Amino acid sequence: MPGRIERWCIVVLLVGIVAGGSLAQSPVYEVPAALVAVPAAQPAAERPVGIFSDMAPGGTPEGWKQLRFPSVRQETEYSLVEQDGRVVLQSKSVMSASALITQVTVDPGRHPYLHWSWKTREDCFSGSWRRPESDDFPLRLFVIFERSRGFFSFFRRFGSGFPGDAILYVADATAHQAGERSSHVSGRIKVVPLEGPGRAGRVWGQHVRDVRADYVELFGHQSTHVAAIAVMTDTDNSRTACVSFFGDIYFSETTP
């Protein structure tokens, strides 16, 4: 994982995406007034985030951008590949760290259920979100929420932490749900450890999470809208290598 300030200033990343600029720009951002409010799309039974199976292999998914960390030389590579008879998102990390993120506007009150699948190799390192020296994971999925009282209306300068909240789902079968749920980076990042997929790299882990209920449990109040989804594989602290895969990601009104 990169440095404490750099790596999880998700606010800066999202502002860069909305403004259409580079993710490696100066840490000072001005948000155009026209971008403060993002109109929600029309209601639907499902809200797609990344339907990779409908895309062609090669390159990165349209609408997704890299989050690069200046303190980490190597970036994790993300690309669409064919795997198990369908197109999925592959992450290839070699002593590297970076995330892939997309902006969304989802009301958890209407579409509370987040669906996704993932798998990884048996030899990939899984560390601890509580210790910065070992904070590497083969499979991460972030749900990033708008700040209360206006979308990006106050974002002006890069600083430590970020005023929004995030839920981080990680594949970590060794963790206990009753333990400390805050990331060492910020108390505004709450971690939900999930049972990992088959670690031999042949079995997909399928997940459906009630994001609205998870948020209330973790933060003690109702959430704002979801502003972005990010996936990540990182191996910079452990100095190892890992290949992982992410299947389709979407929100729904109800569970199957």
Mind sketching the topology for me?
Elements: H1 4-7, H2 10-19, E1 46-50, E2 65-68, E3 77-83, E4 86-94, E5 97-106, E6 113-120, E7 140-145, E8 166-171, E9 189-194, E10 205-210, H3 211-219, E11 226-234, E12 241-246, E13 249-252
Parallel strand pairs: 8-9
Antiparallel strand pairs: 1-13, 2-5, 3-4, 4-12, 5-11, 6-10, 6-12, 6-13, 7-8, 7-11
In short:
The chain is mostly beta strands and about 260 residues long. Helices cover about 10% and strands about 35% of the residues.
User: Would you give the CATH topology?
Assistant: Jelly Rolls
Strand coverage percent: 25-35%
Give the total of domains: 1
Number of helices: 3
CATH class: Mainly Beta
Radius of gyration: 17 Å
| Overall average pLDDT | 76
Specify the helix fraction band.
under 10%
Q: What overall form do the CA principal axes indicate? A: globular
Largest sheet: 7 strands, antiparallel
Distance, first to last CA:
36 Å
- Taken in chain order, the helices and strands follow as HHEEEEEEEEEEHEEE
Keywords:
mainly beta; seven-stranded antiparallel sheet; 256 residues; 34% strand; 13 strands; single chain; Jelly Rolls
Give a verbal description of the structure:
- Strands 1, 3, 4, 6, 10, 12 and 13 form a seven-stranded antiparallel β-sheet that branches. Strands 2-5-11-7-8-9 form a six-stranded mixed β-sheet, sandwiched between helices.
- It has 256 residues and is mainly beta.
- The chain is globular.
- The termini are far apart.
- The longest helix has 10 residues, at 10-19.
- 9% of the residues lie in helices and 34% in strands.
- The chain contains three helices and 13 strands; from the N terminus they run ααββββββββββαβββ.
- It has one domain (4-36, 46-252): Jelly Rolls.
- It has helices at 4-7, 10-19, 211-219, and strands at 46-50, 65-68, 77-83, 86-94, 97-106, 113-120, 140-145, 166-171, 189-194, 205-210, 226-234, 241-246, 249-252.
- The model is unreliable at 8-42 and 150-162 (pLDDT under 50).
